[in-house]
């Protein structure tokens, strides 16, 4: 008896709760709070959300809207993060969002809720890999251009076919790395965290110091300026809404900690801590990065000139170039800092691939994807869902093929990623908000009476975020300016719901237990 009691005492609290929910431990539970935080932080990333959309958001309504937009979006993001942290503490499973949705919605609506949530999350995460690959290729394109002499000096601007090769190459590298043992991924994500913290600090401090002149605080914090002759948008309110997109795109991904809870020690406590810590760190560092870029602008109109040194393709690269070339008559410093930013994209894509594979694995484990038996297989040696990793990589590569013909690929992929990823948050949060309190079994992180108000604000904010990413971002609307996200999502989600109505509702019951319920009541 003493031996059995001693063995029970050492059972991890997260594993104990996992067993109570009907799942046995299959993945290695060896990740610490710090490693889980590193992966969550790396998925959100300091540079990867802000950098690719900074130029367009700045152009919509000027610096003040961009700077204060980050503060506003950060404020509402905390409501979403806190709501998710409470649920994560109660349900520390790899399936995370879709598992939460199934159990919070109850036995009647649970299957449909988990079906919608799982597919939204899978779509968002796989498209998220594409955003990292595209933006990483964009930074690499600027690095090559500056290294070979700049646009004004005969430098090499990578053509579409080479851009696509870089895009697919990054996707394949991330898949290969994710096929190795989890320790490799965790180690790289720890490097990523320090890469971003140290690299971000260097950029935030160095850039304004290097720039020969800096913008006055009044310009950065109060100057409002629209560009209807470029964007076609004359409404100031509409321009402000679109200028917030950079912040809304950047401030999500903190659910990565939840995807890894079956591999995290004490996940019922450490999962929520990792979620909230990631939001806090990114909120502060992200705002500092935006301020550093904005204060260091030398000539606003020149940033978008197609004849400038970066061919007008990448505003942050031009800001870095102007700062270093203006003081040192060399682009070397700008190239080094661009490499730091590129590293952030690389690590971010690696982490998102990890999260996407876990979601596909969890959905396959519950037989929610065609050929589930293939995608749920665990690598016998490395104990990772290798087949799910390569499925995500293959779909992501297909998403990039339109690069050869279409100019607005990044806009579409970004919108799909954000709506899918953030939309997946809405389902369990709404279910938590409307369920009876006595049916909820809280974990160590519990909001009590504040839960419903927090969930309501979070749900409304998510609905608003998804809506604005469906809006046209440029007028007049033509084939080369059309936001394809509504059509892409409409077709994809339409097919998924048609599948549900015709067939899946007959057999998909949501998360499938892999431990027998000896009590026979099926309750969790």
From TrEMBL:
Pfam families for this protein: AA_permease_2
MF annotations from Gene Ontology: transmembrane transporter activity
Major subcellular site: membrane
InterPro entries: AA/rel_permease1, Amino_acid_permease_CS
GO biological process: amino acid transport
Domain of life: Eukaryota
Keyword Transmembrane helix part of the UniProt annotation: yes
GO CC annotation, single: membrane
PROSITE patterns assigned: AMINO_ACID_PERMEASE_1
Record-annotated membrane-spanning stretches: 33-55, 67-85, 161-181, 193-211, 231-252, 273-297, 334-363, 384-404, 410-434, 454-472, 484-502
Gene3D superfamilies documented for this protein: Amino acid/polyamine transporter I
Membrane-topology descriptor: Multi-pass membrane protein
Cell location: Membrane
Keyword terms, alphabetized: Membrane, Transmembrane, Transmembrane helix, Transport
Protein name (database record): Amino-acid permease BAT1
Organism: Panicum miliaceum (Proso millet)
């Amino acid at each position: 008896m003493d031996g059995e009691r001693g063995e029970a005492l050492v059972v991890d609290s997260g594993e104990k709760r996992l067993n109570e929910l009907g799942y046995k431990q299959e993945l290695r539970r060896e990740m610490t709070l710090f490693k889980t935080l590193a992966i969550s932080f790396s998925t959100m990333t300091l540079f990867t959300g802000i950098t690719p959309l900074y130029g367009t958001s700045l152009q919509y309504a000027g610096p003040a809207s961009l700077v204060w937009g980050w503060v506003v979006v950060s404020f509402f993001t905390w409501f979403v993060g806190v709501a998710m942290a409470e649920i994560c503490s109660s349900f520390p499973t790899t399936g995370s969002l879709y598992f939460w949705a199934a159990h919070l919605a109850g036995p009647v609506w649970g299957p449909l809720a988990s079906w919608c949530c799982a597919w939204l999350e899978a779509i968002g995460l796989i498209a998220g890999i594409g955003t990292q690959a595209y933006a990483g290729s964009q930074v690499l394109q600027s690095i090559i251009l500056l290294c070979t002499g700049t646009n004004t000096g005969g430098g090499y601007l990578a053509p579409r076919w080479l851009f696509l090769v870089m895009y697919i190459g990054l996707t394949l590298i991330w898949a290969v790395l994710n096929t190795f043992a989890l320790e490799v991924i965790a180690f790289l994500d720890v490097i990523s965290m320090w890469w971003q913290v140290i690299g971000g600090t260097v950029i935030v401090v160095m850039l304004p110091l290097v720039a020969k002149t800096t913008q006055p605080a009044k310009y950065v914090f109060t100057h409002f300026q629209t560009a209807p002759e470029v964007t076609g948008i004359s409404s100031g309110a509409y321009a402000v809404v679109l200028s917030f997109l950079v912040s809304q795109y950047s401030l999500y991904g903190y659910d990565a900690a939840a995807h890894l809870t079956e591999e995290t020690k004490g996940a019922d406590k450490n999962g929520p801590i990792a979620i909230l810590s990631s939001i806090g760190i990114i909120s502060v560092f992200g705002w500092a990065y935006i301020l550093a870029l904005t204060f260091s602008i030398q000539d606003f109109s020149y940033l978008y000139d197609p004849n400038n040194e970066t061919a007008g393709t990448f505003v942050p690269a031009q800001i870095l170039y102007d700062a270093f070339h203006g003081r040192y008559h060399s682009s070397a410093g700008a190239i080094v800092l661009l490499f730091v930013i590129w590293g952030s994209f690389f690590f971010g894509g690696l982490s998102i691939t990890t999260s996407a594979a876990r979601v596909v694995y969890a959905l396959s484990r519950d037989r929610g994807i065609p050929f589930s038996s293939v995608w749920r297989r665990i690598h016998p040696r490395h104990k990772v869902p290798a087949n799910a990793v390569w499925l995500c990589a293959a779909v992501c590569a297909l998403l990039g093929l339109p690069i050869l013909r279409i100019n607005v690929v990044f806009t579409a992929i970004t919108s799909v990623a954000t709506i899918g990823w953030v939309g997946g948050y809405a389902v369990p949060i709404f279910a938590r908000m409307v369920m009876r309190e006595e049916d909820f079994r809280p974990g160590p992180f519990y909001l009590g009476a504040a839960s419903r108000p927090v969930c309501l604000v979070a749900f409304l904010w998510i609905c608003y975020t998804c809506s604005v990413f469906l809006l046209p971002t440029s007028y007049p609307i033509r084939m080369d300016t059309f936001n394809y996200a509504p059509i892409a999502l409409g077709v994809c989600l339409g097919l998924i719901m048609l599948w549900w109505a015709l067939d899946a509702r007959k057999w998909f019951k949501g998360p499938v237990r892999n431990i027998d319920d000896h009590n026979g009541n099926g309750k969790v």
